[in-house]
Write a structure and sequence with these properties.
Elements (H helix, E strand, L loop, with lengths): L1 H10 L7 E2 L5 H26 L22 H9 L19 E8 L8 E10 L15 H13 L14 H14 L3 E5 L2 H6 L2 H4 L5 E5 L4 H10 L2 E5 L4 H14 L11 E6 L11 H10 L3 E5 L14 H5 L8 E5 L9 E5 L1 H10 L1 H5 L5 H15 L6 H22 L3 E2 L1 E2 L7 E2 L8
Parallel strand pairs: 5-6, 5-7, 7-8, 8-9
Antiparallel strand pairs: 1-12, 2-3, 4-10, 9-10, 11-13
Helix pairs in contact: 4-14, 5-14, 14-15
Length: about 425
């Protein structure tokens, strides 16, 4: 009996963390729609009063000079004037501290109903629930900060060139070698912007005649890069392996539209952690389908690298998969590493191709030396290469905080989406009145 159970566990890997997308209670949905309906109703009513000259209040009058073409469409104007401006102060609040567990907000007031703000010179201490400084390395003191300062004094801040000209420094080579060793791939290349790592590199890998099977909740950078590539894009249901397999099967059987020729390449494009849904990709199942149908796998680990897995090596580490089963490993340094930029890791042939053909390498400014040094120091701490267990402690603390925070929110009756082990915790508020 025990042997059969162990055999089953090998054939069907156990999901490490369960994923939940609780249905919205009917009463909550009705009240939410009713609240928005009231806002719309009164907004249109007040617009009518303003048009006939009965409403003189200027809370929703655009202060731009007369004669200018409206910047937004009529409905966008209506929404901004009658809804967003009323609670605008809840967003875009400038901070004046390190984005740690607590942050200092700059106090501000408005004299024209939210169109413009002026600072009062005071601050408010608040709990930070909106940052992706997962491991707390975005600091202004400590080992990482001191190393970045030393790098600035030694190498300066700006590089003043692209990677293909005179913008490649020794620190960039050091970083790329470290990333490849950390991820477990043959080679890696780094870029100065996380969003552009996807949007500017995908067109260098995929092109017309290729098929991209993209998860419906993929990030905007993946969507933009896919569109710029000229490849055909098909969207499959979020984390739905049956739908993905059906589309893979159809792609192989029917080929390209009209001509029915075979696709030049088929790519499966997924994220490690989906930043809006808080769910973790079913990587073992994706790899199984990728191997079965001879497709390529593009994995975006922007939110998972450093923040997931027993060693912080992302979703591959979390599921205990072989990194060689993922063809293109992408990630960013803006989350767990408290820095900027992104990377693509994989086989040497892939990385050499990107170094020669990537728009980022051709036209993008090289990564700033102190930014690269911040990543190097942080990555060494996570790997334990600094001789301490500080990286392991932070990874374990994040995992513990994630489980506790999600559990307590559910116990308090909140609707929380995503996987149990995901540090991205979407909490659904629904009603407009709850937002402020």
């Amino acid at each position: 009996m025990a042997d059969s159970l162990s055999l089953l566990s090998l054939k069907a890997p156990k999901r490490v963390g369960e994923e939940t997308f609780e249905r919205t209670p009917l009463l909550v949905a009705v009240v939410t729609y009713f609240g928005y309906a009231i806002l719309f109703l009164f907004g249109y009513y007040r617009d009518f009063l303003r048009n006939i000259g009965w409403e003189q209040r200027r809370s929703v009058r655009d202060p731009n000079p007369e004669g200018f073409v409206p910047l937004y469409k009529s409905f966008e104007n209506f929404f901004n004037w009658n809804m967003y401006l009323r609670i605008r102060d809840c967003w875009n609040r400038p901070i004046c501290s390190v984005p740690g567990a607590e942050i200092d907000l700059m106090d501000r007031v408005t004299d024209d109903y939210g169109w413009n703000f002026r600072f009062t010179g005071t601050t408010t201490r608040a709990v930070n629930l909106g940052s992706y400084n997962y491991l707390g390395f975005a600091e202004n003191s400590g080992v990482c900060a001191h190393a970045a300062i030393a790098s600035t004094k030694r190498l300066g801040v700006g590089v003043g060139s692209t990677r293909q000209e005179v913008g490649t420094m020794q620190i960039h080579h050091e970083l790329e070698e470290l990333v490849a060793r950390f991820i477990g791939t043959e080679d890696a290349v780094v870029f100065g912007m996380g969003f552009a790592t996807n949007s500017m590199n995908i067109p260098s890998i995929m092109h017309k005649g290729c098929l991209i099977l993209s998860d419906q909740y993929n990030h905007a950078s993946l969507i933009l890069g896919s569109r710029l590539s000229g490849a055909t894009i098909q969207v499959f249901k979020h984390n739905d392996m049956e739908d993905l397999e059906a589309r893979l099967r159809d792609a192989i059987v029917y080929g390209q539209p009209r001509s029915h020729r075979a696709w030049k390449k088929i790519f499966i494009m997924v994220e490690g952690i989906y930043s809006m849904e808080g769910s973790i990709v079913c990587l073992p199942d994706v790899i199984r389908l990728k191997k079965k149908y001879k497709a390529y796998l593009y994995l975006d680990e922007a939110h998972s690298i450093g923040a997931l897995g027993p060693h912080g090596r992302g979703v591959v580490d979390y599921w205990d998969c072989d990194v060689r089963d993922v063809d293109i490993m992408m990630g960013t340094f803006t989350k767990s590493f408290g820095s900027l930029g992104g990377y693509i890791a994989g086989k040497k042939e892939l990385i050499n191709h990107l170094r020669c053909n990537s728009q980022n390498c051709c036209y993008g400014t090289s990564m700033s030396p102190p930014v690269a040094q911040q990543i190097i120091t942080t990555m060494k701490i996570i790997m334990g290469a600094d001789g301490t267990d500080e990286g392991q402690r932070r990874i374990q603390q994040l995992a513990s905080n994630t489980v506790y925070f999600r559990t307590r929110l559910k116990q308090m009756g909140f609707i929380v989406y995503g996987s149990d082990d995901s540090p991205v915790v979407p909490m659904m508020l629904f009603m407009v009145a709850k937002v402020p």
